[in-house]
Amino acid sequence: MPTSNPADILLAHNTWANRNLIDACAGLTTEQFNQRFEMGPGSLHDCIAHICGAQRGWADMLAGHEIRDRIETGGPYTADQLRTLLDDTATELADALAAHPLDGIASAERGGRSYSFARGGVLTHVTTHGMHHRAQCLNMLRQLGVDPLPSSSVVEWMLMADG
């Protein structure tokens, strides 16, 4: 477990928490996994696909690659397929961030408009974006009666690694 570099902590925790979420969904029926809720992208499936899609889009931007199609436009995916997508996009994101200093600038074009962001800002956005949607997923899981809910906090991650 990375213990001192905030960038390493953000990346490792984000991946761990997202995996825990997907693992909790693996035991659901297809109907539960796709049940509509009036929050976020609307279902556990769609919310997790969105987390993976956003992570891949930002990784493409940071790597200076052409932005690929959004993961959300594909599917439907199983929990196992989403876990593979998560692992792939987490690796791509970590590699893209490691290739340049965090105080550097990354640029891309979307919808005919150019954007430039500090790489550290992108890292912060991706990880807080994931946290935002994981909270929605935890609420969905709670409404489905899942107990216990998957661990997701940084403190839980640190305690698990130290235990």
Write up this protein.
Helix content is 61%, strand content 7%. With 163 residues, the chain is mostly helical. It has a two-stranded antiparallel ribbon. The model has no long low-confidence stretch (mean pLDDT 94).
Low-confidence stretches: none
Instruction: State the CATH class.
Output: Mainly Alpha
Question: What is the number of helical segments per DSSP (H or I, 4+ residues)?
Answer: 6
- Profile the largest sheet: 2 strands, antiparallel
User: CATH topology, what is it called?
Assistant: Four Helix Bundle (Hemerythrin (Met), subunit A)
CATH architecture descriptor = Up-down Bundle
Share in β-strands: 5-15%
Strand order of the largest sheet: 1-2
Q: What does the radius of gyration come to?
A: 16 Å
Bulk shape: globular
State the distance separating the first and last CA atoms.
Answer: 11 Å
